[in-house]
Each structure stands twice: as C-alpha cells, then as structure tokens.
Write a structure and sequence with these properties.
295 residues, mainly beta, 8-stranded antiparallel beta barrel, 10 strands, rod-shaped
C-alpha cells in the first residue's frame, strides 16, 4: 500500500513539472477568440485632405441650338419641323483635376457613416461641336397655299456650341465599413458646378413656289418658281453664359487606407450628372487619389 501511494505521488510530481514546461497555447486557456479577432481602427471624427486625378467629360450638344431656332422660327410654320433637327453631336474630352475635402465620420461598431464636402478644380475640361443641315420643307403643317401651288421652304441651319467646366463643389453622404486599416465606402449627394456655355445658330430660308397648271392642250405641267429670300427667318442668334452655376447629383465608390495613426490615403471613382444649361448636358467621370488626416 505504501509503495502504491509513493508511486502515485511521484507520478503527480512529474506530470506537474511537465505541464509547467509546455508552451502557453491559446487553446489551453480558451484563447481562440482573442487570436482570431481583427484589429479595429477608430474612423470616428473630423478629417481633411487634398486630392488630384483625371476627369473625362461627355457633353451632349444634340439639342443645344433648339432654343435659338425656336426663337427664330417662333409663330411660323417652320418652328415644328426645325425643332426636331439634331444639328450638333456629342463630344468628349479629358483633363486633370485638383481639389480638397473635409468631412466628419460617425462610427458604430463596423459601420461608418459620414458627411463630406469637396472642392474640385478642372484643368482644360472644354468641349465644342459644330454642324449644319439643309432640308426642303414642303407644305409644312399650318401653311396656306393658293390652289395648285406647292410651297418649298429651302431651309439651311448652321450652328456651333461650346462648354467649359471650371470647378465644382459637392456635399456627399458616405457609408463605409471598418476593415481595420482599410475602409471601403460608397457615397452620393448633390453637386454645384461652374461653367461657361455658348451657342450660335444661323438660318437661311428661301421660299420657292411651284405652280401646277394645265396648258391649252389639257396637259398638266409644273412651273418651278424662283427661290425668294425670307428675311424674317434668315438671321443669326447667339447666346453666351459665363460663370454659370448649375446643379447636379454625384455618386461613386472609394477606399481609404490608414498609413500611420491619423494619416490615410484614398482612391475613388466619382460620377457627376449636371442639369442642362441652354439645352447642353454635361456628365463627368472622375478618378482621384488623395491624402488626408483624421483629427
């Protein structure tokens, strides 16, 4: 009996000494949860920074001169037919952008909500288009002709339009996700841009009246008339707006990465759609990289 007790005591001593020499594994103390948890970062607070990037502008001039042609042909039988003419084209251009941003984040666990204001200056974002079109408008609706007479309004339109986007401010709401040192986010909001927009159109209208008559032998013949200038509808109209403010909306995606303490870098894509100015519509696609600091 004494031998058994002595052997058990010696075995317990050896087991305790062996356990003390074993490494401190998390599994031995229920530490797997701590070992697998991600490192979170506090994105809450005010921040500010600067950015630069590349912009692509698309301008739709297809209806730019319609307002001017409607004025020239107002209260005439030519207003309806000419209002549907697509005289100019869509054009695109590219250029650099520079700007800054300031905002505030509010963080709840992994969710980050924010409100941000931005300013962007555009370098040489200017587009233009020109074109002409001629059409023989025969007996347009509302026109009154003598019996046997066909009216031909030989109409030629020549136009040009241009738009330059100077700068822009936006107010954007953001929704982000705390991924530790990085935070992907989406945003949407309102934009106000400053533009120079111009348009010019020249019209040339001649009226030719062809008469269908019957000769003494009963033959029906058509007598081609001589085109006569219509001075009231042959004119040039020009309109120009400088530093015109135009509203729009903005949306996009971005990613921020913490470099050191409050210092972070960002990259983002932004789409901007402005309301038409003098029937000219401008959209922007902006790509940016930036550097900011969270206070």
């Amino acid at each position: 009996m004494r031998r058994l007790m002595l052997a058990a005591a010696m075995l317990g001593t050896v087991s305790a000494a062996h356990a003390a020499d074993m490494p401190d594994l998390p599994v031995l103390r229920g530490g797997f949860t701590d070992g697998l948890s991600k490192t979170t970062r506090n994105w809450d607070g005010f921040y500010a920074g600067g950015s630069f990037g590349y912009s692509s502008a698309s301008t739709d001039f297809s209806q730019s001169v319609v307002g001017l042609t409607n004025f020239i042909f107002r209260d005439s039988v030519l207003q309806g037919p000419t209002s549907s003419w697509s005289l100019l084209n869509k054009t695109t251009t590219q250029g650099a952008n520079f700007g800054g941003f300031v905002g505030r984040n509010w963080q709840w666990y992994d969710a980050v909500l924010g409100l941000e204001g931005t300013y962007t200056y555009f370098n040489k974002i200017a587009t233009q288009s020109s074109g002409s079109n001629s059409l023989d408008i025969v007996n347009p609706p509302g026109d009154v002709q003598p019996t046997g007479v066909t009216n031909h309004y030989i109409t030629t339109l020549t136009g040009t339009a241009a738009a330059t986007v100077k700068d822009m401010v936006t107010l954007r709401g953001r929704v982000g996700w705390d991924g530790g040192d990085f935070m992907p986010y989406a945003f949407a909001g309102a934009a106000v841009g400053r533009m120079d927009v111009s348009r010019t159109v020249s019209s040339d209208v001649k009226l030719r009246q062809d008469a269908t008559v019957q000769d003494p032998f009963g033959n029906v013949i058509t007598i081609i008339g001589t085109p006569q200038q219509v001075p009231a509808q042959s004119q040039t109209q020009t309109q120009h707006r400088t530093n015109n403010f135009v509203v729009g909306w903005v949306a996009g995606l971005g990613l921020e990465y913490c470099l050191w303490e409050g210092l972070f870098a960002r990259v983002e894509y932004e789409y901007v759609k402005f309301s038409p100015v003098m029937n000219t519509s401008v959209t922007l696609n902006n790509a940016r990289v930036g550097l900011g600091y969270k206070f």
